[in-house]
Amino acid sequence: MSLGNPALLTLTEVAEAIASKKLSSRDATQACLDRIARAQPKLNAFMAIEPESALAAADAADTALAKGERKGPLHGVPLAHKDMYYETGFAVTCGSKIRRDFVATTTSTALQRLKDAGQVRLGTLQMSEFAYGPTGHNAHYGAVRNPWGLDHITGGSSSGSGSAVAARLTFAALGSDTGGSIRMPAHFCGVTGLKTTVGLVSRAGAMPLSHSLDTVGPLARTAEDCALLTGLMAGADPADPTASHRPVPDYLAATRQPLQGLSIGIPKSFYVDDLDPEVARVLGDTKSALAREGVRIVEVELPDQRQLSAAAQLVLAVEAAGFHGQWMRERPQDYGPQVLMRLQNALAIPAVTYLEAMRWRGVALAEFVAAVAGVDAVLAPVSPVPAPTITESDVGNSLNAEAVIQRLTRFTRPINYLGLPSLALPCGFSNAGLPIGLQLIGRPFDEATLLRIGAGWQRATDFHRQCPEL
């Protein structure tokens, strides 16, 4: 492994280099800080940058390693995460004006497990207000910009995470996915993102948006990186009764298994309808490439995904409004107009309609799992289009913006409603040089198979290695 610029290494590469003392934590941290200083004025990816404390933590990590004291697999690795993960003593804005001065008194379980593994804190990353927006716009802190095209969206709500990982400002970042908020930034920014099965990773200490849809997961450069982080975070948690007690698989071991002998389903409808020609081209190229690698490609007939998408929107809207009820009554002026409109609109949804949507979830999941019983995963676009511009997706400045936004999330929402895992992978570029990603959809708690396919794909391709110019 040639080190070169440490910031250009993958998460697993930099962790190995630090552990073997080929690279110091200080040098890795300084490399990230140097890139952050250059890129932040253009990208607006960070909410807070903490260079002094980051370098002090890196020095402490180097000193400990010199004494033979290694905390864990992330010892000395600098990371930044979406600004919705509480950490005791730190401000956590949740991308909002309402929580601009909120200082956490607890630390989220997912974040604590990464800290226990040795990570160094670089700061926090921008996000859509209260994680309620799929583009990366933010009325209070400004839009996050895509490093592949500064006039284009990053996707949301994990906007800063997608932008910062793509620009090599952090080796990985936590996001959250309630309606596509990890997978869309992964697709639009050309990185790898894992939406986990509901309950795989504890949500304790993470800002809630929709209590039955929220999931915690990583954005990183590779499937191997996502496997490392997911393995560290997953598992039962007394602070979150919804967290699964099932044993955590060895996700890293899964990434070393071959592609040969696996089967991947391609939907006959919905996920292949009304695609931008360039997304359709990338989907076709990816199918052909996987077949050359020994994967069996078959068509699958899925249940009506339009109903799932509508049900997901309804559940998300009602549960978000329930969480924000008091602030909507007491501080409506402190919301951005788009977020406030979405929250207020949900108040008109009848309780019976919400309960019907919730009651149908188990039936819908059983039907979906039965439909894909003959394949190991389903391959589909993350979004029908490459990244639109910030202007054309801005509700305040474009008459067609709402239609643009609705189209963006059409392929991600059904997976959230079903609670399934989905891995977004970089699979190509548009003619304008914008990344195009695809998602692998799996069975409940079968992240290992998705990560196996993702790692095999990335051994055969180099899309994940391509880096935008700062």
Automatic annotation (TrEMBL):
UniProt keywords, alphabetically: Ligase
Top-level taxon of origin: Bacteria
Ligase keyword on record: yes
Gene Ontology molecular functions: ligase activity
InterPro entries (UniProt xref): Amidase, Amidase_CS, Amidase_dom, AS_sf
Domain Amidase: 27-451
Job description of the protein: Hydrolyzes indole-3-acetamide (IAM) into indole-3-acetic acid (IAA).
Official protein name in the record: Indoleacetamide hydrolase
Source species: Rhodopseudomonas palustris (strain ATCC BAA-98 / CGA009)
